[in-house]
Amino acid sequence: MNKATTDKTKQQFESVFVSPMRSYTLTALDYYDQLFSAQMDAARAYSDMAITQARTWLDVKDPDSFKKAMESQQKTASDFMERMKGDTEKVTSISKSFAEDSQKQVEETTKKAVETAKQ
C-alpha cells in the first residue's frame, strides 16, 4: 500500500469509527455526570428531610409538641412527594436528552459510513 492509500484508510477509519465513538463517549460521560449529580442532590435532600424530622420527634415532650410533630410529619411527607416528583421528572428529562443525542449520533454515523462506503 502506498502512503496516499494508507492515509485515506486511516482518515476513513477515524471518520467512521474513532470520531463517532469519541463523540458518543463524551455524550455518555455528560449523561452519567448529570445523572449522578441529580442522584446526589436528591439523596442529600432526602437525608436532610429525615434528619430534620428525627430532630422534630426528639423534641416531643407534651401533647402540644406531639401535635406540632405530627403536622411537621405531614408537611415533610408532602414535601418529600413533591421533591420525588421533581427528581423523577429531572432524571426522565436527562435520560430523554441522552437518548435523543445518541440516536442523532447513530444517524450521523450511519450516514457517514454509507458515504464513505460509496467512495
UniProtKB/TrEMBL annotation:
Residue spans of biased composition, Basic and acidic residues class: 98-119
Family annotation (InterPro entries): Phasin (IPR018968)
Highest rank taxon of the organism: Bacteria
One Pfam family linked to the record: Phasin_2
Ranges for domain Phasin: 17-108
Region (Disordered): 91-119
Name of the protein in question: Phasin family protein
